[in-house]
Amino acid sequence: MSRRIKIFDTTLRDGEQSPGCSMNFSEKMEMARQLERLGVDIIEAGFPVSSPDDFESVKAIAKAIKGSTIAGLARCVEGDIQRAYDAVKYAQSPRIHVFLATSDIHMQYKLKMTPDQVVERVAKMVAFARSLCPDVEFSAEDASRSDQDFLVHVFNTAIAAGASTINIPDTTGYSTPTEMYDLVSYVKTHIQNPHVDLSVHNHNDLGLAVATSLACIRAGATQVECTVNGIGERAGNAALEEIVMGLKTRQGYYDCETGIHTKQIYRTSKLLSTITGVPISPTKSIVGANAFAHESGIHQHGVLANRMTYEIMSPEDVGVNQNKMVLGKHSGKHAFIDRIEELGYKMEEADVAEAFERFKVLADRKKEITDRDIEALIGASAVANVKETYKLKSFVVNSGTVISATAVVKLEKDGQEEIEQVARGEGPIDAAFKAIDQIVGCHSKLENWTINAVTEGEDALGEAISKISCNGNLVTGRGLSPDILEASIKSYLNAINKAINAAPKANLE
Ligand code: KIV
Ligand code: ZN
User: Fold this and answer.
1) Rounded CA gap, 448 and 157, in Å?
2) Distance 339 CA to ligand 2 centre (A)
3) Which one of 186, 253, 299, 475 is at 20 to 30 Å from 125 when CA atoms are compared?
4) What is the pLDDT of residue 381?
């Protein structure tokens, strides 16, 4: 009988803590709801002690999500563990995830603790976590570079203290798939309780995280930690969609299954990319724009004769919709709702109403509204929940080869006063952003700005992403419009509004 592998998603913790991937409260909620729809077993919702914002979002996710276990991360100290529990305790199925490093280099230089002190701390803190919560996971950070016998000793200590999952991270992405296969096999045969879940958590520094995770599953791991699109520290974590589709496509080889509703994969990936502004490479496995595109004549001919010649999985399996239905300005709310449902979205009534308003505005400016446009509009609704301290009222921009670019921008502040400023810049975007800076008086810096067409054609919808750094945080803003200047201004304002309304994070060691 095939083995059921638990999918532990850490997009909202390991993923969110990587530069350029931070999310605000409503974005985390939206992502958590989508992860629940995707069918992940465990959502690691955050690191509650790291900031009041993180605490509040973990708590809100714990209250709202019913279909997945909600985990909160904690260092091996009482304050962290208590804070994690205070946030996850509202969940139907809460988990405290405690970690401490076990490699010589981490113990000596980072923790400044002896191996005996580490063992003592693990025994005490796992027992404390267990006194609060029946579901405790213990991770030995940098496990792959730890002495194997010491690692097993620490794991047995954690198990004796009440841990029901032990996690073996390849924190630095240093190990090969074969080495991690051997390590999992070793731990499996040496731990004292064979009934605990054996988890793995692989980073992608050498591009091996997914291969290593699959090798670990072959060795007997029962839980795999991963993130959507593989986002995470440095080169990221193992990509959820690649592990899941690897197991599904090669079911005969792995003889394992997951609880993931694979038709939700594409949507989940797109939502994350929309929220973070981190684009998906066209050649990215499973969810890249080219993942199911057949360009060469030989391939096209083969696929037309029999899809299986070049397609090892079908786009429909991961929720990529090949059918391009078109709506227009005469389409009513019912047609819009039907299309949303056909695309597989489940939205609250208020969100549908908001998305429909955006649809009407867009339909006035764009002849044909395709599925991609609708997905973008839904994404916009999902991330629109930012307090609009500053709102765009109007803008005029002049630019050309013989004049310096000048922008006049009028914003409304807090729904009350209107403020207008004029600025010159290196180009129209620079001029518009400078005018906004003068109004807002902000000390943020534009780090990156991109514009992409959501669809093809002359009247394509433009999606602008602005990344600004503000108080040491990188904040992403998004703007949509068929007019690329308007999309850009909206994206910059969206980032500024997010930065203004975000609380700072603590810097944890
Ligand atoms: O990479 C790592 O070791 C971690 C642990 C906290 C599990 O993220
Ligand atoms: Zn990690």
Assistant:
1) 47
2) 38
3) 186
4) 64
pLDDT per position as a tens digit, 454-470: 776 777 888 899 999 88
| Residue among 151, 252, 137 nearest 197 (CA) | 137
Residue 170, CA distances (Å) to 42, 77, 105 in order: 19, 22, 14
User: Is 301's pLDDT higher than 80?
Assistant: no
DSSP 274-294: HHH--PPPTT-TTTSTTTT--
| Least distant ligand from the CA of 143 | 1
> Residue 98 — φ and ψ, nearest 5°?
-105, 140
Please give the DSSP secondary-structure letter assigned to residue 209. Answer: H
Element (H, E) at 478: strand 473-481
3-state class of 114 per DSSP? coil
Name the residue of 96, 139, 151 whose CB sits within 8 Å of the most ligand 1 atoms, as the mutation to test its pocket: 139
Classified as helix, coil or strand, 438 is helix
Contact assessment for residue 259 and residue 41, using Cβ atoms and an 8 Å cutoff: yes
- Give the closest residue to 154 by CA, choosing from 105, 100, 111: 100
Ligand 1: which residue has its CA nearest to atom 7?
Answer: 139
State which residues have CB under 5 angstroms from ligand 2, the bound ion.
14
Q: What phi and psi values does residue 354 have, to the nearest 5 degrees?
A: -65, -45
* Amino acid 299: pLDDT: 76
Protein residues with CB under 6 Å of any ligand 1 atom:
14, 99, 139, 141, 167, 169, 171, 201, 203
Torsion 455-459-461-465 (CA) sign: positive
